[in-house]
Design a protein that fits this description.
The chain is α/β, with parallel strands linked by helices. The protein has 19 helices and 5 strands. Its cofactor is FAD.
Length: 450
């Protein structure tokens, strides 16, 4: 009797450079490829709408690629502590493999499940696949975690080079008997009433093949201009790999080694390092999405929320050109240029005086690349409450940012042309007065007891 290996896919929806899958292949038993939609385990954060759209299409792609190689992608829904052991029992599996997670709830689920499965005599192993350097391997001289990026990245670069990517399997042996699977359509991941995903379909093709193609295209056509042009939202020189990395359609090891092989890309790789820094911060501070990393910011006197201001920001109707353009790009394409992300976030926090957590929640729902590390990490960075954060008094002036980085209005013309033809609303706040009000509020944080 065979004892199949279960490969539990999570945010690693790929066949190439997938250590958990490779371990199952090396075990030389039939492979049960599992994707589990777990929104029931304690503190597990439900996916946002744009993320659910991406997940649906990425699972379609993964399922097709597994089927082409002789296997089957099994879909199940529920709490991992219930679903995985039941699948082991039903299939007689002798091993379960997965790639590690670094957020608090996921780590707790994985640790408990690993212990219980091993108690039942099942082989269990987990692997590094989504970060280049695992959080416990990068520490300061005193053994603590880094809170500033530059020394963090220097410490990473002083470590041995990340391992080479693993090859993609050509064949996968499935179990002798077909295993029951959910129907993906029954998960209702796609929006229907209304179907607001037209812009996502127009912009993106989820799946591992498209991810590999985009990396090759970026390295061939855009890498040389990346360092010079990455801050200009009207230029199309960014990698657009963030959702690919978020869903694990391509691994950071593949991105790293193929970039290094070009002989350049230091600035781009430092942005990969910033992603690493976010995940390391989340590992050491699991409540990153809800709690100020710097506790002195708990004293910040957020005023009573003005729903009309929040709604105007969400809709891209603030009367401020670069902000409105960014928010409309977000709604249409599920993405936003990074420079504009900083500007829109600063405007919400420091001009509208709205708690950064409100903005983080909106981006979580609207971004196809929103993950549990980078999204809250970036919001806290702009707010001044996070790791290596911009000081609170650094307030992006959206008009000056437009003049500097979109001086020919290519970006504004594409996403908010009403600001060029006289049809834009009046600004909902005065930029100078609201900036001064934010600085006055910050003085209360500085005076708060430590």
């Amino acid at each position: 009797m065979s004892s199949p290996s279960i490969v539990w896919f999570r945010d690693d929806l790929r066949l190439a450079d997938n250590p958990a899958l490779r371990a199952a292949i090396d075990r030389d038993e039939p492979i049960i490829a599992l994707y589990l939609l777990d929104e029931e385990s304690p503190d597990m954060r439900p996916l946002g709408g744009a993320a659910r759209w991406w997940l649906h299409h990425s699972l379609v792609s993964l399922g097709e690629r597994i089927a082409e190689r002789g296997g089957q992608l099994i879909l199940r829904r529920g709490a991992a502590a219930d679903v995985v052991p039941q699948l082991v029992t039903d299939t007689g599996a002798g091993a379960v493999f997965w790639n590690r997670r670094y957020g608090g709830p996921g780590r707790t689920v994985d640790a408990d499940l690993k212990a219980s499965l091993r108690d039942d005599g099942v082989e269990v192993a987990s692997f590094a696949a989504s970060v280049l350097f695992e959080p416990w391997t990068v520490t300061t001289g005193s053994g603590t975690h880094f809170s500033v990026f530059t020394p963090f990245w220097k410490a990473c670069q002083a470590l041995p080079s990340p391992r080479a990517p693993l090859p993609e399997p050509r064949e996968l042996t499935g179990p002798a008997r077909r295993v029951a699977s959910d129907d993906l359509d029954d998960w209702a991941l796609l929006p229907t009433r209304p179907d607001w995903a037209g812009g996502l379909r127009e912009t993106w093709e989820p799946g591992e093949p498209a991810a590999r193609a985009r990396l090759r295209e970026f390295l061939r056509e855009d890498l040389d201009d990346y360092a010079r042009g990455r801050d200009e939202p009207g230029r199309d020189v960014t990698s657009r790999l963030s959702p690919r990395l978020r869903w694990g359609e391509i691994s950071p090891y593949t991105v790293w080694h193929e970039t290094v092989e070009t002989g350049g890309g230091a600035k781009f790789l430092s942005e990969v390092g910033w992603r690493e820094f976010a995940w390391h911060t989340l590992y050491h501070f699991p409540k990153l999405a809800t709690k100020n990393l710097r506790p002195e910011f708990d004293a910040f006197p957020w005023p009573r929320l003005k729903p009309s201001h929040l709604e105007a920001w969400q809709r891209g109707e603030t009367g401020v050109a670069l902000v409105d353009a960014g928010m409309k790009e977000l709604w249409h394409a599920g993405i936003m240029h990074n420079r504009v992300r900083m500007v829109t976030a600063s405007f919400l926090i420091k001009n509208l005086m709205i708690d950064w957590r409100r903005g983080e929640e909106w981006f979580w729902d609207c971004l196809v690349d929103a993950d549990e590390a980078s999204n809250p990490f970036s919001w806290q960075w702009v707010a001044g409450s996070g790791a290596d954060a911009a000081p609170y008094f650094r307030i992006f002036n959206p008009e000056l940012q437009r003049e500097k980085f979109d001086k020919h209005d290519e970006y504004v013309r594409r996403w908010a042309p009403e600001h060029l033809d006289g049809g834009a609303p009046e600004p909902i706040v005065d930029l100078k007065a609201s900036r001064n009000a934010a600085l006055d509020a910050y003085e209360k944080v500085k005076r708060a007891p430590r």
